[in-house]
Amino acid sequence: MASVNGGKILVAEDNIINQILAEDLLTQAGFEVVIAENGKKAVELVEAVKFDLILMDLQMPEMDGFEATRIILETQPGQHPPIIAMTANALTRDRERCIGAGMVDHIAKPIDPDVLFDTLLKWIPDGDAGPNSIESNSIESNTTDDAFVCLAGIDIDAGLARMNGSQELYTTVLKQFFQDHSTDDQIIARAISQNDIPLAQRTAHTLKGVSGGIGAKALYDSAQNVETAIKDDQLDRLEPFMESLTRELSLVVKDLEEKIMAQALGGTEEIRHSAIDMEKLQRLMNDFERMAREMDPDMDGKAKQIHRLLERHDSPLKKISGTLWGFAEDFDFKQALGTLEELKCELDR
Q1: Percentage helix, strand, coil, to 5, in the chain?
Q2: Is 291 in the same domain as 202?
């Protein structure tokens, strides 16, 4: 499957697992990727940056995908990039609602890499094969890790397929799932007890999507049943669905903790005690400084790499790099450059 050379894509998505997955897959395929964590940020980015295409999640905090699409269409009539919906709701009526709102296409979550790339090539102009062209499952992978031989409640082959065959990406996503979703059943139960129905439904919806992404089919089905009952205002039917959700989530989380997170902690200790690659860090800082001086809104990607490099080594400078990342995300170029100088001075000591 071919990719588009130089295509710049905005991914509007609030869930960090879906952000990681989309950014990794699209970057491998040769696209330049910018992440917006909600519809409001997406609208701001579209006003400041020219994109070739927008991937728009529908359920996001602050501003959902439908409202963001409406504003983009109104403020940039005839000039806006194609907007493609991403949602775990794959029913015909959901697709029709997306098209009716002005989106040009629809991609169901969990994302299938083949479907994703084929859909992008339909809508990004001047698409042609390039050096970064990519096939599904074309990524070279090492011998399957022992931790992947069996994970309770997870179809590993299905999960790896969603990652385009990348074991490294799969491991990253599994760790993130454990960190972000281990107590989702408790969040849903608490939200319902407090009559915060929107939070309960949104949490079930997100859990459904990420469960499908990692290959946890039974958990996906349980989350879908909970979401549907809440959406249809049938809370009296919820108890057996919640029991199933808690059972399936506990099964997945327990094995991830024993087989993935325990392994990660050992690797983390080795990384923390190893030296930071100063050549890489210097290169990232130089790139960031150039982008900040040029007022390039994509500088936040470099800031994130700087922060993650220092954070992985548990550097005492990670607080400064976190501040740098924050200014970059806010497009505060002056403060970002000042913080970069502070970081450089501390490194020279």
Answers
A1: 60, 5, 30
A2: no
Mark whether 254 and 289 lie in a shared domain. no
Is residue 307 in some structural domain?
yes
- Could you give the CA distance from residue 127 to residue 38 in angstroms, rounded to a whole number? 28
Residue ranges of the alpha helices (H) in 294-332? Answer: 299-312, 318-329
Q: How far is CA 170 from CA 146, 208, 228, 309, 329, in A?
A: 14, 17, 28, 20, 26
Contacts of 346 by beta carbon, 8 Å cutoff, 6+ apart:
317, 320
Query: Which residues share a beta bridge with 54?
Result: 10, 83
Q: Which runs of consecutive H residues, i.e. helices, occur in 142-183?
A: 156-162, 167-181
| Residues 182, 72 share a domain | no
- Mean pLDDT calculated for residue range 157-180: 89
Residue 25 makes CB contacts below 8 A (sequence gap 6+) with 111, 113, 116, 163, 164
Give pairs for 73-77: CB < 8 Å, separation 24+: 73/102, 75/43, 75/47, 76/46
Single-letter residue type at 323: T
Which domain range does residue 338 map to? 278-348
Q: Report residue 87 as tokens.
A: 């949602």
pLDDT at 65: 93
DSSP-derived secondary structure letter, 146: G
Question: Given the structure tokens 């491991």, which residue do they identify?
Answer: 171
Tokens representing residue 64 in the block: 């959902």
- Residue 144 within any structural domain of the chain: no
- Amino acid identity of residue 96, one-letter, is E
Assigned token pair, 120: 């992008």
- pLDDT tens per residue, range 113-140: 888 988 988 888 654 434 344 444 444 4
